Amino acid sequence: MEFSLIDRIRNLTAQHRDDVRLGIGDDAALLTVPTGQELAVAIDTIVEGVHFPVGTDAADIGWKALAVNLSDLAAMGATPAWALLALTLPSADSAFVDGFAAGFAQLAQTYRLALVGGDTTRGALTISVAVHGFVPPGKALARAGAQAGDAVLVTGTLGDAAGGLRCVQNYRHSDDAQTRYLIERLNRPTPRVAAGLALRGRASACIDVSDGLLADLGHVCAASRVGAELDAALLPRSSALLDLFDESTSRDFALSGGDDYELCFTVPAQQVAAVQADLAKLGCGATRIGRAVEGEGITVRDRDGHPLASRRPGWDHFNA
What we know:
This protein is an alpha+beta fold.
């Protein structure tokens, strides 16, 4: 049964690439890294009840399992190429596998990403995906590099996934367009790959927002040895989030909710307008929300410039 599941996944996710010498079916894949490129590699695991609610549609799980990894490549400014999949299932559920593979393949096809190997086993529903991408030498984005005076920006909108999760937790699934939008943002995040490529050679530091803006920007600040000041009024929030939640809740979701997989990055102040114009052309846009400063830590200020306290800095798997 295990091998028939593997065959189903292989058939449903098939993607031809000339740099795949040998893909699914052997003990290891054989891959060719193009000349003049460095290999960027990332891996993430998602677990039922932790990263997606119990009962989430199989196709949405397949999409999200890949999306959260592609977001890491986006944050590095890398072009996606290959993936490995480790799929742990409670039972040999072919219907679930078909749905999962369909969602995975739908996103993979956007980037011509080839699934080149992996593993299946029995246990609690858990999915690990390792992705590989290419970046020219010396052009990868990193968390270190922000300088005091740089502007802090984010793509898209923040807090939608946390809002979607709250809707699911409150058994509010498809009552209206706003609810559906937030749940879609939770289940099918958009990895900002094109934005990451556009930021190569321009962003001084970059990270994807997976654990919450405060937590992830905190990693940039620590790596860059700077602090940051944010203006709460500038946090980009969707109309759906603002319609369904009050100002305080939507702000907390934007600061600490996580799971949005937008890019948070820094650029020299004089480059902000040009970067915003280019990202607007890509459809995701970018909002300036603050600046890097001397010192350490992150201060969030209200409209009057007074510091705000957030309820929590972000997601921590071992301190949830």
